[in-house]
């Protein structure tokens, strides 16, 4: 069953912005999401899934080098929702984006949300 649902992707021109959201579909997962490191990952066509950013329950963040200064990860623990604000998008950011645990906990991967950046 689906436990993490990603949304907010779309087609955007280079330099544009998108905001992705990730929500938990089950109560127990919402509880876990609020107390564990959560992250965004992406998988481009023909490539392996890679880590993009993570955030701790306390709000500390870390990013892969290619998105530093352009992407911002945040979380709303009251809403049990994870966000990824993406600015200055580049064609190489084109991928399916997923959320999941980024520490000791992970669940099955959801369907993700497609981000396509045109040049």
What does this structure look like?
It is a single chain. The chain is mostly beta strands and 119 residues long. The chain is built from one helix and ten strands, in the order βββαβββββββ. It has one helix spanning 27-35; strands at 4-7, 10-13, 18-24, 38-43, 50-55, 61-63, 71-76, 81-86, 95-101, 113-118. The strands form two sheets. It has a six-stranded mixed sheet, with no helix packed on it. A four-stranded antiparallel sheet has the order 1-3-8-7. It is globular, with a radius of gyration of 13 Å.
Number of strands: 10
| Portion of residues within helices | under 10%
Distance between the termini: 36 Å
| Gyration radius, rounded | 13 Å
Q: State the helix count.
A: 1
Q: What multimeric state do the chains show?
A: single chain
Identify the overall geometry. Answer: globular
List the helices and strands and how they pair.
Elements: E1 4-7, E2 10-13, E3 18-24, H1 27-35, E4 38-43, E5 50-55, E6 61-63, E7 71-76, E8 81-86, E9 95-101, E10 113-118
Parallel strand pairs: 2-10
Antiparallel strand pairs: 1-3, 3-8, 4-5, 4-9, 5-6, 7-8, 9-10
Task: Please give a quick description of this structure.
The protein is mainly beta. The protein has 1 helix and 10 strands, in the order βββαβββββββ.
Which properties best describe this structure?
four-stranded antiparallel sheet, mainly beta, six-stranded mixed sheet
């Amino acid at each position: 069953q689906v436990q993490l649902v990603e949304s907010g992707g779309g087609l955007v021109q280079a330099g544009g912005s998108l905001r992705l959201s990730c929500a938990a579909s089950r109560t127990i997962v919402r509880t876990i999401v609020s107390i564990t490191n959560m992250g965004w990952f992406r998988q481009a066509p023909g490539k392996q899934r890679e880590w993009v950013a993570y955030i701790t329950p306390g709000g500390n963040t870390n990013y892969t080098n290619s998105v530093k200064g352009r992407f911002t990860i945040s979380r709303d623990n009251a809403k049990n929702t994870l966000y990824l604000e993406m600015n200055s998008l580049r064609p190489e950011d084109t991928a399916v984006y997923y959320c999941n645990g980024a520490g000791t906990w992970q669940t099955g991967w959801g369907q993700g949300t497609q981000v396509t950046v045109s040049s």
